[in-house]
Amino acid sequence: MKATLLIQNIKTIYTPVATPPVHGKHMNKIKEIHQGFIAIKDSTILDFGVGDGDKYIDNHTIIHNANQTIVVPGFIDSHSHLVHAGSREDEYEKLNEGVPYLDILKDGGGILGTVEKTRKASFEALYQQAMKSLDHMLSYGVTVLEAKSGYGLNFENEVKQLEVAKQLELAHPISIQHTYMGAHAIPSEFKDDREGYISTLLEDMKKIKELRLAGAVDVFCETGVFSLMEARRILSKAKDLGFIIKMHADEIHPLGGAGLGVDLHCSSVDHLMAIRDEDIEKLAYSNTIANLLPGTSFYLKKGYAQARKMIDEGVAVSISGDYNPGSCPTENFQFIMQLASRELKMTPYEILNAVTINPAYHLGLSATHGSIEIGKYANLVCLDAPNLPYIFYHYGINHTKDVYIEGKRVVYQKQIVRS
Ligand code: NIG
Ligand code: FE
Predict the structure, then answer these.
(1) Sign of the Cα pseudo-torsion (329, 331, 335, 336, in order)
(2) Are 133 and 164 in contact (CB under 8 A)?
(3) Ligand 1: distance of its center to the CA of 149 in Å?
(4) Any atom of ligand 1 within 6 Å of the Cβ of 218
(5) Residue ranges near ligand 2 (ion) with Cβ within 5 Å
(6) pLDDT by residue (tens digit) across 36-70?
(7) Ligand 1: nearest atom to the Cα of 222
(8) 20 to 30 Å CA-CA from 299: which of 251, 258, 321, 326?
């Protein structure tokens, strides 16, 4: 048994209280505890409340001073394309001049450009590049990250990406949730044989399951990428194999991906900038989470998802980063949260639910993550701010002071301690 760790002198603790998935108006509920403490034992929360927690002090207790920071549950970024090779700053100029994202992909660039680089990259090169990204993310308070494959697009290279993510998980404090995304694009060698690629992918999915390299499957359902019918076929098979399923849906064209996601019981449907009104209603009556990615709208200048309408109609929303080289090249999760405030017009409480308990729910982790509750992992972010709304107002900087993952302080006074 390890000694109790007592975090004292917390200005305010903010934590979700509603049972997930937190829908609509319930997203605007957060519990605040002023001048409080959190006691931690063996990686989980032993107790928390008002005062100094003096009853937990004995000869062995380790005491940390929060120095009047505010404390929130560790952020959960439930959508990323973490492992990839290289960058695409050459496309940035084209996008800036107004060339559409899907045209770049049609011309063999975009995702396929990164596929070429990722196939050529060594395990070590991919590992080092992603490790740097994880450090950035951790510094902004991300404690759990979902990471997709999808830049290999053949068995060998998809496995390479997933294995890099598995290795990173062992070496880095951030917990990683692994998703297989062979259905990210049709690789160029199969461009005249879609059926050939999809049947290969269905076989690969089985092997990925046997190798336990991923717990979820994602499909990019979009004009010129995977159709609704193809997404249904791939995700149904994934579900039969026991994967959690999710979808990049209605990002650019209103195909009805969100509605299909509800029908298939996807855990989340992601992007949704072009969602149809009837699918907002369908989502509201389901447990499928609308995972919105405002950093992508910002970068692609495509307009933002209608978060306000979704929440007002009762949808359960989460907010994620979508870190990737082509449509959202940033690891700054607090900037993503600031965009949720400014562009999605969500309230500070709604955003806190959207980056903690709701993503925990759709990743299948809400019993252990996503809120400050006795028995849950002590994943905590101490923010150097007088109150929660302040972190949305004072934008573009990093408010993190300390981060705890499973009871261990892994960022201290803004310094990362990896071992
Ligand atoms: O979530 N939309 C599809 N996939 C990624 C972008 C991948 C890329 O451009 O490399 C996304 O935006
Ligand atoms: Fe994505």
Answers:
(1) positive
(2) no
(3) 11
(4) no
(5) 322
(6) 999 999 999 999 999 999 999 999 999 999 999 99
(7) 2
(8) 258
Asked, as a colleague might, if the bond just before 325 is cis with ω within 30 of 0, I would say no
CATH topology (fold) of 76-362: TIM Barrel (3.20.20)
Please tell me the distance from the alpha carbon of residue 285 to that of residue 166, in angstroms, as a whole number: 35
Q: Tell me how far apart the terminal alpha carbons of the chain are, to the nearest angstrom.
A: 20
Query: Which atom of ligand 1 is nearest the CA belonging to 300?
Result: 12
H-run or E-run covering 167? helix 155-171
Q: What is the pLDDT of residue 235?
A: 98
Distance 55 CA to ligand 2 centre (A): 47
Q: Directed axis angle between helix 228-240 and helix 194-210, to 10°?
A: 20
109 pLDDT exceeds 90? no
CA distance 67 to 7: 10
Tell which residue, 318, 404, 405, has the closest CA to residue 77: 318
Nearest residue (CA) to ligand 1, atom 9: 326
Is residue 318 helix, strand or coil? strand
Span from the CA of 84 to the centroid of ligand 2 (angstroms)? 13
pLDDT at 107: 79
Inform me whether the pLDDT recorded for 419 exceeds 70: no
Q: Is the CB of 111 under 6 A from ligand 1?
A: yes
SS3 129: helix
Cα gap 331→202, rounded to integer Å: 31
Enter the CATH code of domain 5-73+370-416: 2.30.40.10
- Counting other chains too, the contacts that 95-100 makes at CB distance below 8 Å and 24 or more residues apart are 95/299, 95/300, 95/301
- Local structure of residue 387 (DSSP, 8 states): S
86-119 core/surface letters (b: 16 or more CB in 10 A; e: else): bebeebeebbeeeeebbebbeeebbbbbbbbbbb
246-249's contacts with Cβ under 8 Å and 24+ in sequence apart are 246/179, 246/216, 246/217, 246/218, 246/270, 246/291, 246/362, 247/218, 247/219, 247/220, 247/221, 248/218, 248/219, 248/220, 248/221, 248/222, 249/221, 249/275
Q: Give nearest CA residue, ligand 1 atom 3.
A: 220
Domain ranges of the chain: 5-73+370-416, 76-362
CA 374, CA 273: separation in Å to the nearest integer?
Answer: 37
Compute the distance from residue 85 Cα to the ligand 2 centre, in Å. 16
